[in-house]
Amino acid sequence: MDPAEERRDRKRQHEYFNLLGNVADSQYGIPRRCPCGGRIIDEVRVKEEYDTLPGKRFFTCINYEADGFHYRQPWMIGVQEEMERQRKCVVEAEQVIKWVSNLNKQIKSVGVKRLTLLLDNLTSDVYNLTVQVADLEKVCFE
To answer: For residues 93 and 23, what is the distance between their CA atoms, to the nearest angstrom?
Structure first.
């Protein structure tokens, strides 16, 4: 075999294995589209003579062939994985909501502390002014 042709053949095999791995890794949750570009349909297995699970449902590529490049995923597995993903999203949203709530409490407490400090300063200024007014009254009425 020609070395250049051998390299091309190895390159094609490498691309094939990468594509096969990408397809296998992408089968998580409810598939939206097949890597081949075909749409996903809900398939219900028909009752066969020796079928132990008649009526089993699948998410299947409309162009399905058993070559590893098309989706045919059991319906229950896809729905379970999608539910797990949605649960994770809900947990993350709850954490963000709690974080925002805690942040609001911290902002309020910082604001209250600052207002308290300003009030204390104003109170001391008013006290100083009353003392000065009392001193001026003593000087003016003596």
So the answer is: 30
CA-based angle 132:133:135, to the nearest 5? 65
Q: Is the CB of residue 109 less than 8 Å from the CB of residue 57?
A: no
What is the maximum span of the chain, computed from C-alpha positions, in angstroms? 123
pLDDT tens-digit map of 95-134: 988 888 888 888 777 777 787 888 888 888 888 888 888 8
What is the 8-class DSSP label of residue 68? S
The sheet with strand 72-74 has its strands ordered as 40-44, 57-61, 72-74
pTM of the model: 0.47
38 by Cβ neighbours in 10 Å (0-12 / 13-18 / 19+) ranks as: middle
